Write the structure tokens for this entry.
Amino acid sequence: MKVGLLLEGGAMRGMYTCGILDVLLEEKIKVDCIMGVSAGALFGVNYKSRQKGRGLRFNLRYIKDKRYMGIYPLITTGNIVNQEFCFNDIPNILDDFNYQSFKRTKEEFYAVVTNMNTGKAEYKKIDDLKGDNIEYLRASGSMPFVSRPVEVNGERYLDGGIADAIPIDKMQAMGFDKIIVVLTRPKEYRKRKSNMTLAKVVYKDYPNLVDTMSKRYKIYNNSVRDVEFLTNTGDVFLLRPSKYIKIKRIEKDEKVLKEMYDLGVNDIKDKLEELKKYLKD
């Protein structure tokens, strides 16, 4: 039996995902593949590296550090998330990432990115966090308008959530028997149509990207519909916030981050026996 784990993004709503991943590690619930989108990929690496608590720890410690994310890095680097601080200083100096464990553990790991030229999602397998792989991980979390494109092998990429925020179709096509889906929005949420004026100006050289962005709300809402249908048929196990917590994409309040994390912990613990039964059947 092949088990897949799908992790939606959502910037600091990803603290919810961190809570769920820590319980999965604590309970020794293993999967065969992780597919992360944006923050889902950025925080999902800690599951594969077996570093329980790391995602919560470094975010609480550095969320108010001006080098991390916000207006200061946006002005000074062109990215609302400081790439040097997040992909070098934190994992290599301030809160060591276990690269050896990430490479050694057996789960396949995929980061979803959006190709700016084609406007389509690409699913990049990441075996280690070196070279192009770290660039694809960066690209997956590079939010439009507030991030510079990430260039790899002549192609430019942005946040995977633009083209495929909930890649359930891809995971099904990969042949997984069981799929655990972690969403970071509560049941009632649906994405609304966006005003495309800014996108048409900023990304005027990428018409396929603009077209995808104009359809983003439909793509997202259709994916939520599909996940809910598959949950009702027993083909997917869905975890998502059981209540609404007001949290900003770039949230600076440690209490709010911890509240989101705790909600993830509590939600999966409430469904733990149900999850184990799903994986066993």
Q: What stands out?
A: The mean pLDDT is 97. The chain has 14 helices and eight strands. The longest strand covers residues 108-115.
